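REQUEST ID: PR-0412
SUBMITTED BY: lab tech R.K.
PRIORITY: routine
TASK: structure prediction, single protein chain
INPUT:
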Amino acid sequence: MTDELGRLFRDAWIAGVKKHFPGEPKPGYIAPWEETPEWERQAAAAVCAQIRQFVELSAGSTAKLSREQKGRFVAVCWIAQIHKHFDAPKPGYVADWDALPAWQRETDADIFEAIE
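STATUS: complete
OUTPUT:
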């Protein structure tokens, strides 16, 4: 189940990067699941599970959230995973929503909607 959730998140991430990233994305951004580091697989599965639970516990009312609210939820869940896996993460890895590039904010919203 963890693998399935992680792949769902990763596939939505890759689709969002390909759609929103300006220019050519870094290879790691679009690396297939098999080449994704273990910590990132675990984080992807955890965030996917959090999104699913959020949708379930709200009885589907997440459909009423704005794209920004959906994206913010993904971003905050991801930041928590970064802190779980790294003692001293780079500031860019834990940047708040307003500091994220537009392509990443759009990708995070796409991820939520794909899982929702």
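NOTES: Residues 38-57 form the longest helix (20 residues).
REVIEWED BY: pending
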